[in-house]
Amino acid sequence: IFIMATGMVASQEGGYMRDPRKHHFSPYMDNGGTTVAIAGDDFVMVASDTRLSRGFNIFTREQGKVFKLTDKTMLASTGCWADVLTLNKMFQARLTMYTHEHQDNMSTTAAAQLLSTMLYWRRFFPYYVSNILVGLDEEGKGVVYHYDPVGHMEKLEFSASGASVAQIQPLLDNRVGGLNMQGEKPKMTKELAHELINDSFVSATERDINTGDGVVIYTITKDGINEETVKLRRD
Fold this sequence. Notes:
Layout: E1 2-3, E2 8-10, E3 16-18, E4 34-39, E5 44-49, E6 52-54, E7 57-60, E8 66-70, E9 73-79, H1 81-102, H2 108-121, E10 129-136, E11 142-147, E12 153-156, E13 158-162, H3 165-175, H4 190-207, E14 214-221, E15 224-231
Antiparallel strand pairs: 1-2, 2-3, 4-5, 4-13, 5-14, 6-7, 8-9, 9-10, 10-11, 11-12, 14-15
Protein name: Proteasome subunit beta
Keywords: Cytoplasm, Nucleus, Proteasome
Main location: cytoplasm
């Protein structure tokens, strides 16, 4: 038996059969990570874990996944780390061009629309990235925009994405969205948002090897951006 260039196998009996070997190539790699965002009346809180991994291999335990765009806007991205860095680089370039042309920073609403356009432009070979864009709108209210890989966006009060979304999103739906909850849903405060984000990452770390080591929490208000790091389990 010998293998021909066509991928078919020729046998000594003179017949042909298809080569059982499968050749597979994927340009994407999932490097794990989880992001969570919760918006309030005058703030928005966004967080990510700090583990960057590939399967059972941990590349680093100190890599956050939230990027500052302006003093009122941030972008949280997980997925293929090469695509995360490329998307953020292109996004930052577009923001710089806008600032030089208009002598002002782009608003959160405009940045949200720009990201949607950039993702849709790559729809035939999309970035392998899950994105959440957060910030303060023109009225100073916290907003959360969630995206699919080809640019469809949805304006929400809370969202999660990445490796542990299946564990965290139901918690947010119940505690923040008030689903399956008796009585009125609680008013969102900075203290409650911080507690929910912390608890959600602690729970996810116990069940998902792609999330862990630490969580970096950013709080955006009219006074600026505050950063806090909380340690998680490292195994």
